[in-house]
Records
---
Amino acid sequence: MKLIVGLGNPGREYANNRHNIGFMCVSQLGARHGIRFDKKQSQARTGQGEIAGMKVALARPQTHMNLSGQSVSLLVARFAVSLEDLVVIHDDIDLPLGKIRIRHNGSSGGHKGIGSIITELGSPDFVRVRVGIGRPVINEGVSTAMEEEVINHVLGDFTPDEKQIITQVVSRVSDAVVCLLTEGLTVAMNQYN
């Protein structure tokens, strides 16, 4: 079985935030393959089914982003998956809007949700599908990383122009996950990075 987790913050007020792109992607993946998030378990909304003939569990942790590791560690234990069978989809401020990067292991890159997962699992050895949300642009087009602007950016909703790009990207992430499941990490990285 594969465990595919989309990161985000629970609650209607966060539903369209840039930080919730992981939720959006895993929800689209579920909808495309007839998997409903009809269970509450391990501090997450989960659904089980098959994608390309492979058993999968999809999950949206309900712990809030910065505590994602609490839920993910429980899910890994509940579904008895190895870390090589864990895929985490999340936003990445260091990638341009709409870009996808698939990678295996590495640091959190400053992403608090990924940092929490690494801490709780005691290992960085899992696959991440990073989805670019870009950095906030201020001061006449100069991109900055000031803490307050970053927080406002990731917790802000996508603009109408951004939503057009994100709609396509969410679908592309579903394709990338299917490729990852059926053809493996190297092929998925070559095709979607």
---
Amino acid sequence: MSLLEYSEVTEKKFIVLDGQPYEVISAHVFRKQQRKPVNATKLKNLMTGKVTEYSFHVSEKVEEAEIESREVKYLYNSRGEWWFSEAEDSSKRFKVTEEQVGPQGKFLKANTVVEQLLFREQPMGFKVPITAELRVVEAPPNVKGDTATGGQKTVVLETGATISVPLFINEGEIIRINTETGEYRERVGK
């Protein structure tokens, strides 16, 4: 267990506050006129997903969270239940809720290996790859001269997710997307 000074609480670090694990989303150290410096942070509770703001003062120290991870394989989802198994042994299955998987889950293909994050042996969430290559299964036809809307159309991907893409993307093509933002990146091929 290591303690962090107020200025060492920076983005992407994991800390323990009131017995709960948090990820630091943003941190900004500043000084108001004659006062001591303060580190204003935005923290995401890794158990509930709630984002809160907290200010660390010069005299404060905070415990760094020891987050463990293990590789698991995504199998399928049905009725709000997401089924995974251990990466090496698919007979050891477990289910989690849609909230635990997070919004990036809609871009997971069957048999994708992801990292499951654990805090004190308790599952917290998943680390999904930032980019994914998925096939377009439904795309409306292009309409000539339809660029007044910025040249975008909504397509359905093989995982069931819908995203906005440029007009030139057609059904059957494989595209690369950013799973954090849900945005189209580029066309990969057919």
